[in-house]
């Protein structure tokens, strides 16, 4: 109502018959509240009125992201500084990066990271796919669900617990593996402290932990394949093997591709929690990866700038891999990493 | 599917598949059952026990009594329960509120916020800058540091946003017409609808907090603040036998002197797993459903 009153009084105040052009011009320049919805000010005010409760909901989360995800990015400038106990830090440019790339130790952990990641992709990545295919061949639903409800468990155990389990199972004196080797006449070995076997301990403990849970994604993909395809194949007399080869596998190729690419995107994460708990002095040089190196250098050794530089190197290369993985996945399968 | 008579070849195939699956189940549970058997055996017979055993040799709950009375274990348990419960409540509340706001398609700056949050997944500056942030904020040696440092997990946030986007717009409009404000709409309409999704991320966060060991190690100087995982790590991975021996001197009940490291380790690992085992049926119910429907979409 006020809107109409205002307009008419403005028009009437001139005492003339309103010229349509003038009238529009007058309205367009009028900033009276509520008079026009399309002015920036009014739009902003309406936006605030409608959305402030939602921004209140966002507030704790946004403050959290600012403090604990963006402030660390600022703190990472430590990689370019020398730390001073008293007074401000001293800017030293790329000194710590130069020192890092010149050190044989860093080259060693970089190689370890790449080797361990490659071994895991080669030997662990295919296992859940095979497991999902096997589960799909089980006729009895009860047996299948029973198996599934057991094999997901290790995924929810911490690496401290899994390390404890593996240390016990691989114990040379009374671990299950060595007791079995003893039974079939092989000599007892200390897998946890032999430099030739420790990387395989990483591979098999990763397999123990993640094969079951990861098979869930592939199994879900298999379940979403149109059953009519199988029926048609059965009419044509296809064998179990042919159905697997020509229907099931092609059906889960997009899932395999997405997860493979995601794994490549995370290539520099060779598994901090795992290595940290399975490592010991005897074999450290074989499985020390970038993340454990950063921890030891910084948290244990107090060389904060050098450790930050190593972490930043990993962050930047990791970001490149992850973005590459995302856009490649989007292009190939239409589904990104997130 | 109609089952026709199986040929001998198919029967062999089936037998092979079933045996492989049974073998996988055995490999998964045998190490855990072995630890259970050791922890329930007569402590005197534990040193000679095989790693293959899955039944106790003799029977005794001495180890469990010892664990329950161990001051470091008791403190660890209380710390873990405190961090997990407070942390999870905070996690779920903040993640859900944030996800609901971000799931509104017309929210101003929605795209910008999305990009800023996804960027935190893609680029991580590392644990050293995280440590210096905690120091700058004066949170070192406080429980808050461990509770808050992962208050909103970006992946879980995305899962919830996707879920909330599916909430029918008519329900929201109807609530608005009834005079409900944004918070009332969220609490009375959205939360009841989202119960399965919220249960899923609650369990995610519980497991996450329970299994956390690194941040407490970095942020806490005081060992009395350690959660159970760090205590377990100290005993089992680091092999700090002194802590256990010292305790045996303190506990002078019968049989304690005979308890060796192996039995203690077995009991301690299981003690740490117990809560995960307790919520595992819930996990099976919600995770598998949630993950599968997400994957099927």
Write the layout of secondary structure elements.
The complex is a heterodimer of chains A (338) and B (297).
Chain A: H1 2-13, H2 20-29, H3 40-75, E1 81-82, E2 90-91, H4 95-102, H5 104-123, H6 126-137, H7 141-151, H8 159-169, H9 176-183, H10 198-223, H11 227-235, H12 240-265, H13 272-278, H14 284-287, H15 290-300, H16 304-333
Helix pairs in contact in A: 4-16, 5-10, 6-10, 8-13, 10-12, 12-16, 15-16
Chain B: H1 8-40, H2 62-69, H3 71-103, H4 110-122, H5 127-136, H6 143-148, H7 154-165, H8 169-177, H9 182-193, H10 195-211, H11 214-219, H12 228-237, H13 241-250, H14 261-296
Protein name (chain B): Carbohydrate ABC transporter permease
Membrane topology (chain B): Multi-pass membrane protein
Keywords (chain B): Cell membrane, Membrane, Transmembrane, Transmembrane helix, Transport
Describe this structure in words.
Chain B: It is a multi-pass membrane protein. The complex is a heterodimer of chains A (338) and B (297). Chain A is mostly helical. Chain A has helices at residues 2-13, 20-29, 40-75, 95-102, 104-123, 126-137, 141-151, 159-169, 176-183, 198-223, 227-235, 240-265, 272-278, 284-287, 290-300, 304-333; strands spanning 81-82, 90-91. A two-stranded antiparallel sheet of chain A has the order 1-2. In chain A, α6 crosses α10. The two termini of chain A are 50 Å apart. Mean pLDDT of chain A is 87; it is low at 1-18 and 22-32. Chain B has 2 domains: 1-60; 62-297, MetI-like fold (Orthogonal Bundle), CATH 1.10.3720. In chain B, 72% of the residues lie in helices and 0% in strands. Chain B starts with 7 loop residues before the first helix and ends with a helix. Residues 252-257 and 291-297 of chain B have low confidence and may be disordered. The chains are: A mainly alpha (338), B mainly alpha (297). Chains A and B meet through α3, α6, α7, α8 and α9 of A and α1, α3, α4, α5 and α7 of B.
């Amino acid at each position: 109502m006020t809107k109409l009153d205002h307009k008419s009084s403005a028009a009437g105040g001139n005492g003339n018959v309103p010229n349509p052009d003038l009238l529009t011009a007058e309205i367009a320049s009028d900033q009276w509240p509520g008079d026009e919805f399309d002015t920036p000010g009014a739009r902003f005010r309406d936006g605030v009125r409608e959305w402030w409760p939602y921004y209140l909901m966002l507030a704790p989360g946004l403050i959290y992201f600012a403090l604990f995800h963006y402030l660390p990015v600022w703190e990472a400038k430590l990689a370019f500084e020398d730390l001073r106990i008293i007074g401000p830090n001293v800017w030293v440019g790329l000194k710590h990066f130069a020192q890092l790339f010149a050190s044989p130790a860093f080259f060693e952990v970089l190689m370890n990271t790449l080797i361990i990641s490659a071994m895991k992709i080669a030997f662990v990545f295919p296992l859940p796919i095979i497991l999902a295919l096997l589960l799909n061949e089980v006729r009895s639903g009860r047996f299948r669900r029973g198996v599934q409800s057991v094999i997901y468990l290790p995924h929810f155990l911490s690496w401290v617990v899994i390390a404890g389990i593996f240390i016990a199972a691989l114990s040379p004196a009374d671990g299950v593996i060595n007791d079995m080797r003893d039974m079939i006449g092989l000599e007892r070995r200390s897998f946890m402290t032999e430099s030739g076997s420790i990387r395989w301990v990483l591979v098999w403990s990763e397999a123990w932990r993640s094969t079951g849970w990861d098979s869930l994604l592939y199994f879900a993909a298999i379940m979403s394949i149109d059953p009519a395809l199988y029926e048609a194949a059965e009419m044509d007399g296809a064998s179990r093997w042919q159905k697997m080869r020509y229907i099931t596998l092609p059906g889960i190729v997009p899932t395999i591709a997405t997860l493979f690419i995601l794994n490549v995107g995370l290539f520099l994460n060779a598994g901090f929690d795992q290595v940290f708990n399975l490592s010991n002095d005897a074999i450290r040089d074989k499985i020390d990866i970038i993340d454990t190196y950063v921890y030891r250098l910084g948290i244990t050794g107090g060389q904060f700038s050098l450790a930050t530089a190593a972490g930043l190197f990993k962050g930047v290369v990791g970001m490149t891999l992850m973005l590459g993985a995302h856009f490649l996945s989007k292009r190939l399968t239409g589904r990104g990493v997130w | 599917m109609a089952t026709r008579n199986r040929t001998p070849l198919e029967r062999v195939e089936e037998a092979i598949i079933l045996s492989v699956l049974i073998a996988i189940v055995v490999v998964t549970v045998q190490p855990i059952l072995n630890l259970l058997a050791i922890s329930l055996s007569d402590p005197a017979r534990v040193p000679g026990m095989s790693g293959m055993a899955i039944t106790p040799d003799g029977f005794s709950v001495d180890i469990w009594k010892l664990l329950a009375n161990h001051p470091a274990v008791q403190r660890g348990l209380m710390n873990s329960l405190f961090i997990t419960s407070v942390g999870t409540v905070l996690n779920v509340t903040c993640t859900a509120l944030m996800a609901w706001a971000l799931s509104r398609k017309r929210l101003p700056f929605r795209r910008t916020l999305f990009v800023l949050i996804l960027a935190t997944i893609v680029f991580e500056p590392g644990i050293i800058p995280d440590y210096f942030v905690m120091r700058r904020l004066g949170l070192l040696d406080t429980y808050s540091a461990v509770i808050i440092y992962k208050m909103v997990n970006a992946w879980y946030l995305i899962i919830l946003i996707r879920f909330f986007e599916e909430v029918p717009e008519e329900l929201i409009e109807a609530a608005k017409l009834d005079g409900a404000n944004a918070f009332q709409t969220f609490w009375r309409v959205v939360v009841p609808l989202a119960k399965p999704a919220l249960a899923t991320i609650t369990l995610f966060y519980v497991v996450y907090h329970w299994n956390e060991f690194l941040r407490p190690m970095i942020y806490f100087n005081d060992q009395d603040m350690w959660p159970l995982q760090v205590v377990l790590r100290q005993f089992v991975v680091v092999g700090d036998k002194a802590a256990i021996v010292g305790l045996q001197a303190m506990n002078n009940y019968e049989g304690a002197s005979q308890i060796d490291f192996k039995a203690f380790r077995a009991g301690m690992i299981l003690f740490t797993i117990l809560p995960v085992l307790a919520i595992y049926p819930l996990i099976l119910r919600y995770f598998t459903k949630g993950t599968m429907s997400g994957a099927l979409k």
